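Still learning folds. Look over my entry:

…
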Amino acid sequence: MADYIIYGEDFEDLLISGVPFLDVRAEIEFSKGAFPTSTNIPILHDDERHIVGTCYKKNGRKAAIEMAHSLVKGTTKKQRIRAWCEFVSANPNTHIYCWRGGMRSKYTRDWILASGINVPSIDGGFKALRNVILNQFSDAASQLPIIRIGGKTGTAKTTLINKIQFSLDLEGHANHRGSSFGERVSGVSNQIDFENSLGIDLLRKRRAFPGRTLIVEDESRRIGSNLIPKVFFEKMRAADIALVVMPMEFRVQCIAQEYILQMTKEFFEAHPINGWEMFENYLTQSLFRVRKRLGLENYKLIAKLMKDALHQQSNHGDISGHEAWIVAMLRDYYDPMYSYQLEAQSNKIVFRGTYDEVLDWATERSLTNKNSLC
């Protein structure tokens, strides 16, 4: 068991099962993207990695290895080994990786093994696991039939998506609702984190529900700052659409629930001292971002309605004042924009109905793998 290495044929099973990963890359590497079950305990911290990298460029591999050992020795080495062993003991079935399954993961594994714990490492490291994710998008694009759920803003499309087993919540993985007002208090995922989370979900559901049609929301490629992988998005854009049609009153109440009540709660939970100020800023800045598209007069009118509504909510706990600016945004901005976009895809609409009707239709349709309606 001296070389306990996990190879490519087992990578999908590891990702599907959600094993804990010990990521020993430097902090800056981890911050650019990791897997949902990864924890970062570096063998070389950012500054140390920089020193070793500079040494490698000037003096070669042997000198760089010697430099690394001079930086991680004695008490420092013992502390890092202790941190790894504590993590492994608390997280059974941990697997180790670095960037490409090279020296960093090898030394980490060897030092943990010397403490009496045998932990597997990933052949090819983070890069190899990442390739499994990227290949999943191209494979799904070539193999999976897809149905898009469309509809105007406020028709509860995301809620509908999450009621269907074989579906992907694209906005959930991006941690963004996909509009100017779509940011979440906890922040948006970075691109690699978004792709990894989405790809693992796709991999897991394809394994659990083979031979089905995937249900997704009709999204633009960009969700917040993230982009849906190109090959997968192109397959989405070619898919049929089921359109949710709901009355204005329903849509306004749906938006008020998600963007006013829920966001107020999230801001106060995350920021007990200045949550209200941050919520106010979130709404006003979201509106400000679309001022040019609204036109100056419309923007001023809606901004005044929003200001009055925030005053009413702050002083009396009454959110009903928000309905006026929500209606104005739907009428003057979101609805015309969506109608224009939908017109170009009108030939793709295969079903129209209320929320419940589309949910029933899409649920039944997802159970098959037909590429077109009979």
Summary: The mean pLDDT is 96. The first strand starts at residue 5 and ends at 6. Residues 41 and 110 are 15 Å apart (CA to CA). The chain has two domains: 5-131, 144-374.
